[in-house]
Structure formats: structure tokens, C-alpha cells
Design goal:
Structural class: mainly alpha
Largest sheet: 3 strands, antiparallel
Number of strands: 9
Number of domains: 3
Number of helices: 27
Strand order of the largest sheet: 3-5-4
Helix content: 40-55%
């Protein structure tokens, strides 16, 4: 098979050089307030996030009637929710409004990227990507260590290729080594693990070729099982020495006389992968050599587990394979603008067609040239006019893309953290070291996620509200207590500290929406408070109505 991704990469060089030339014009104009972080090509030129953003906007300039730039208050809430998963405080809103510096939007982006909550927020996102399609509930054991692992990696700005290699080559105790999450989520099974590695890191859904040649892509059944042949020696065993319940991901290269037919638990590896005989499932099947489907590069039979997975990680994350960078760029762009170049975000590849391909090509090559700089990618995208435009509903399939941002429902963790931040309450996380999945399921955060959670890989226009979600927002014991005027914290504290009704209405709007109420909203609230007569009861109703509004549960 022709190595399509490599050809695509080579063909992009002419576009790539033109991009550098246009960026040089902006550089000469002095439009580089940030330190250069994105190196493009071997020419030695560096491109700042602002230069890259300007080029991205040029590439998107063909559409008619783009939405206007969003106001400062909306931008501040948007960038907070996108980067740290929580809204700004009233003090931060006031400070941003009074700041007259033209570069304040870029500065707040840099500040939030340096905030420890950035790593936590995006760790939650990737936790959901990895565990949403888990094969069984015991995979929840890895959730806390996975979140911690990714939080540290993102806050330290480890390159994305380094992070991906850690997941592909992982071993160790799942409750301590979060990089074992993909293998744990798929019970160590070679076929499922290979499919998820391809989907998550390459954006290619090769799992559709497991039983037959792919119906809509070029991938053959043989290629799927050649990818699975990188993982047969992975084993997943109970950790007998753990104080609580845990599992170990290990390399199992030991020879054996036979393998049990019921090896579904994968407590033992197999020396080589076999492709089942579809006509006779009881037959031994055909032994398959490890071959990377995107390039045709292969390993010999007998290669150890560590060598197999390390080599696969090297081939998959190489700069010559731009699908690795494209998959990540497409996901982050989709999360920040509400719509991806490819949709669904995990279904890209040479047989798919991207919207605005020149924009995607530029951003992908910039990401590769930067050394897979995660925070640098966020800076580039968030500095664009495309990101900073007002939100509009999704247009028709044939409408120009990215002429506006798109409203998005908050992910479950974002909504949970936004609720607790707006209400001024804290809910401690449970100790799960010895309680296993049952302890995790008892936590308020997990129970909230059960109702409001969704697979981040699903098309965002398919993520809609539900009756159970409405019932939780209306009747949740946690929410009911938090909106009580009798509490020592939350609303009760605000009622005591802010005696003026107009000031308290303003405070609640700032906490819930990160903006002041309009004059009509303010008059409506004050009329209601006067009509109810009891201040505490009226503000309980008012806060409840704000929390149950569409504006509160969406990032605009």
C-alpha cells in the first residue's frame, strides 16, 4: 500500500513555505507581543501565536458575514471555561473590565494556561475520551491515577507525542500509573487496545475492519490484525499485593505450551496474534506479523512486547505521519470553536474530507514543527478572530465554516465545578484507594457525571439536554442545600454580607453568567423580590432560576 500520509506531508511543503513568508510580513510589522514558541520548518524562523493566529484568520477569510468579535465579559467566561473549567470570579471580571491594555486577552490566556486548573480540566476531558468506551466498570479503578497523570503532564506542558508514547508503552499498577488507562479500559485485549490507540491518537477508526474490510475506508481486515499484533504479549493481572483492589499491566514474553480458549481476561499474554478464521471460529487462525498500517513498516515475529509497543509508538507519533498531529489539532479546534475540521473528531484520515483543509494543514504543520507544544496550540487558536467571534447556532452543512463560534453544553466536570464555584461551596473528593469503583460511584462528582456526562468524541450537535438532567438541576439534594438561605456558606453567606438587593442581584449574575444583568433583567428581579416580600425566599428562587437557565449550562 502507498504510504498516503507521508505523501500528503511531502506535498504540503509548498503551502508550508508560503505560510512562513506571510508570517514574516506580520513579524516586520511588530505584531509579536508573545515570545516565539512555534518553530516552523528547517529555515530557522519562529512564529509567535499571534502570527500564527493571523495566518489562520487569513485562511478562513473567504466566508461571508463573519460574526462580530465577542465582548470582553463573554470572552472572559469563554476562555475560563475552556482552559480551567470554571467561570471567573466577580473580582476577576471587574479587573478585566477595567484593564485598558490592548493585549489583555492574550495575557489572560497565558495566565490561565499557567494555572494548575488547566491540567485538571483537560485531564478530565481526556479521561472521558479514554473511559467513555471502556469494556467494563472495573476500568474506573484507573480514573483517579489517570486524572493525576494527565494533570501533571499538561501543567508541565509535556509534548503530546511524549504523552501518547507513555500510553502506548505503559506497564504497572493501574491505581498508580494513569498511563495504563487505555489498556485497562479495554481489559488488555489486543484488538480493542489497538482500535482505541488508533482512534484516540490517530483519529482513524480502523476497528471497522476487524471482521471485514472497512466499508468506507481503504483499510483491510489484514491491516487491522497486523496492528493488533503489536499487543498480544500485554497481560492484565489482579495485583495480589495491593492493599485495595487493583490490576497490573505487564509484558508477558514467557513461552508456554498452550493458551486457554477462555483467555478473555488476558491474565496471560500470547506470543503472537492470530487472525480468527471467520468460517471456522474454533480453528487456530492465521498468525499475523506486526505491521503499522499507515506506513507498512513491520517487525519480526518473536519481537518482545516492550520492543513492539515502543516501535509502534515511535512510528505513530513521527512527524512524517501527520495524522497523529491532525487528530489532536482537530479535537482541540473542535472543543474551542464548537465544530471540527473533521466530524466526528475521531474519524479522520486519507479517505475523509476536511472543511477548510488549508487552515487545518497550516495548523497541523505548525503543531508538528513546535514539537507538539500543547499550550502553544491553545495560544494559537485562542488568539484567532475565529475563536473570539460571537456564538451562533450551527449552520447548514453547506454553509461557510468557522464564521462564528458555536455554543456548547458544558461537560459534566465543567458544570459541576461551575456550580460549586458560583455557589461558593466545596465538595470534598472521596478517598478511593481502598474502595474501588464502588467508592468512585458514590462520590457526588461521579453521580453528577452519570447524568450529565457524554463521550467527548461524539458529534457535539448530538449532545442535548435530557429530562433526568433537568430533574437533577431542579431536585438535586446538593443543589437544594447549596441554594438554601439558611446555609453558613453559599447563598446564606451572600445574604448576610450584601444587604442591598440590587447589589446582590449583580453578584449572582456575575457568579452565574460572568456578566452584569441587563436593565430589564435587573428590573424584573427587583420586582419579583418586592412581590415575594421575604428576601431570603425571593433570592432562593432567583438563584435557582439562574442555575437552571440555558445560559448557565452552556459555554457561549
Amino acid at each position: 500500500m502507498t504510504n498516503q500520509p507521508a505523501n500528503r506531508y511531502d506535498a504540503s511543503r509548498a503551502v508550508h513555505l508560503a505560510v512562513i513568508a506571510s508570517a514574516a510580513v506580520l513579524h516586520a510589522m511588530g505584531l509579536t507581543p508573545w515570545p516565539p514558541i512555534t518553530s516552523l520548518g528547517a529555515e530557522g524562523r519562529t512564529v509567535s501565536p499571534l502570527e500564527a493566529a493571523a495566518r489562520l484568520d487569513q485562511l478562513l477569510a473567504d466566508g461571508p458575514s463573519p460574526a462580530p468579535r465577542v465582548d470582553d465579559a463573554t470572552f472572559l467566561r469563554r476562555v475560563h471555561l475552556d482552559l480551567v473549567g470554571q467561570p471567573p470570579t466577580p473580582g476577576e471580571i471587574a479587573s478585566f473590565a477595567l484593564d485598558r491594555d490592548a493585549s489583555k486577552r492574550s495575557r489572560i490566556t497565558e495566565k490561565l494556561l499557567a494555572d494548575a486548573r488547566f491540567g485538571r480540566n483537560w485531564a478530565h476531558y481526556w479521561r472521558d475520551v479514554i473511559l467513555a468506551r471502556r469494556s467494563e466498570e472495573r476500568a474506573l479503578l484507573v480514573a483517579p491515577s489517570l486524572t493525576d497523570h494527565l494533570s501533571h503532564r499538561f501543567n508541565a506542558n509535556r509534548p503530546w507525542d511524549t504523552i501518547a508514547r507513555e500510553f502506548i508503552t505503559a506497564t504497572g499498577k493501574v491505581t498508580e500509573n494513569g498511563e495504563t488507562a487505555i489498556i485497562m479500559a479495554q481489559q488488555g485485549k489486543p484488538e480493542e487496545t489497538a482500535a482505541e490507540i488508533s482512534r484516540i491518537f490517530l483519529g482513524v477508526q480502523i476497528q471497522c475492519a476487524q471482521c471485514h474490510d472497512h466499508p468506507t475506508d481503504r483499510w483491510k481486515r489484514q491491516q487491522f490484525h497486523e496492528l493488533a499484533a503489536f499487543f498480544p504479549r500485554v497481560a492484565l493481572r489482579p495485583d495480589r499485593e495491593a492493599m485495595g483492589r487493583s490490576f497490573l499491566v505487564i509484558s508477558d514474553d514467557a513461552p508456554r505450551r498452550f493458551v486457554r480458549k477462555d483467555n478473555d481476561s488476558r491474565r496471560r499474554g500470547t506470543l503472537e496474534h492470530t487472525m480468527p478464521d471467520l468460517q471456522d471460529p474454533q480453528a487456530p487462525g492465521t498468525r499475523v506479523q506486526p505491521v503499522f498500517f499507515l506506513s507498512g513498516e513491520k517487525l519480526d515475529y518473536g519481537t518482545s512486547d516492550i520492543q513492539r509497543r515502543a516501535q509502534l509508538a515511535k512510528w505513530a507519533t513521527a512527524a512524517e505521519n501527520p495524522w497523529f498531529a491532525t487528530a489532536f489539532v482537530n479535537r482541540i479546534w473542535s472543543e474551542l470553536l464548537g465544530e471540527g475540521f473533521y466530524e466526528p473528531v475521531d474519524d479522520v484520515g486519507p479517505d475523509r474530507h476536511a472543511s477548510s483543509p488549508a487552515t487545518l494543514e497550516y495548523l497541523t504543520q505548525a503543531f508538528i514543527a513546535s514539537g507538539y507544544d500543547v499550550k502553544g496550540l491553545f495560544q494559537m487558536i485562542m488568539a484567532t478572530e475565529a475563536y473570539q467571534r460571537e456564538s451562533r447556532p450551527r449552520g447548514a452543512p453547506d454553509a461557510p465554516v468557522f464564521m462564528a463560534n458555536t455554543p456548547q453544553r458544558l461537560r459534566a466536570d465543567q458544570l459541576f465545578d461551575t456550580l460549586t464555584a458560583a455557589l461558593g461551596i466545596s465538595i470534598p473528593e472521596p478517598m478511593v484507594a481502598t474502595g474501588g469503583p464502588r467508592a468512585i460511584r458514590r462520590s457526588p462528582r461521579y453521580q453528577f457525571t452519570e447524568v450529565f456526562g457524554f463521550d467527548p468524541s461524539d458529534p457535539r450537535d448530538e449532545v442535548v439536554g435530557s429530562i433526568p438532567q433537568a430533574l437533577v438541576m431542579m431536585n438535586s439534594p446538593v443543589l437544594d442545600l447549596a441554594t438554601s438561605a439558611r446555609r453558613a456558606d453559599g447563598l446564606g453567606k451572600l445574604l448576610r454580607e450584601i444587604p442591598d438587593n440590587e447589589d446582590l442581584v449583580l453578584e449572582l449574575y456575575l457568579r452565574c453568567f460572568a456578566r452584569e444583568p441587563s436593565q430589564e433583567e435587573l428590573r424584573t428581579c427587583l420586582r419579583y423580590i418586592k412581590r415575594v416580600g421575604r428576601r431570603d425566599e425571593a433570592f432562593e428562587d432567583l438563584l435557582w432560576s439562574l442555575l437552571n437557565s440555558a445560559e448557565f449550562v452552556h459555554r457561549m
